[in-house]
Known about the structure:
246 residues, alpha/beta, Nucleotidyltransferase, domain 5, 2 domains, five-stranded mixed β-sheet, two-stranded antiparallel ribbon, 41% helix, disordered C terminus
Amino acid sequence: MSEVLREIVFDTETTGLNSSGDDRIIEIGCVELINHTPTGKTYHCYINPERSVSTGAFNVHGLDDKFLSDKPKFKEIADDFLNFIGDANLVAHNAKFDMGFINAELKRINYDEISMDRMVDTLAISRKMNPHLSKHSLDALCKRYGIDNSHRDLHGALLDARLLAEVYIELLGGKEVDFFKKSNTEQEVEIQSAKETFIKKDYHAPRDFSASPEEIKIHTDFINTLSGNIIWNMTETDSITCEGVK
């Protein structure tokens, strides 16, 4: 049995861009992958940042102070968030930005920071794989890999995490990567299963297309009406050239 790989693709929305200053997280969205396949399990919450949202940030995600005023504070959701991610690897686009904010929040409540060794940065992967591209934003990568992001009018942590999960799978080689990561035994089982499914399809015995005695007689009578040198009446001494039968 192959080892199970658990990863969490996540995204954050914030009050601004300065994680080392007084900007705070206002939304977290996470998507669980097992062996690079979404399981359907997600984590999502809005957070009261205890400060105002900058105009620039609001224009990106559309979350204002009034909407966030009755949401839980980070210290109130920290345990749920940490329990969800567990010890899984964490996948983010521009990972230093998101992890900078996560660790700043954890530090404020005297929790241990998350090691950057657990991070997988899709931005760095894309830049390495596609050095010819001028843009490596989430929107640009969705367009490159044919992922529908038409519903992404504004940034949203869970929406972006779901889109990023699809992008991440494509960066790894597409959905076929899951098959090739399985052991030889597991691959053989899947191949055998596919064969059995094919064999179980409706099967029709071949029809009998043999000519009846009447049909043979009609054909023979027709042949006898033909004149001239006919190929099927040739003897072994006859030969064929581009001018005809000699």
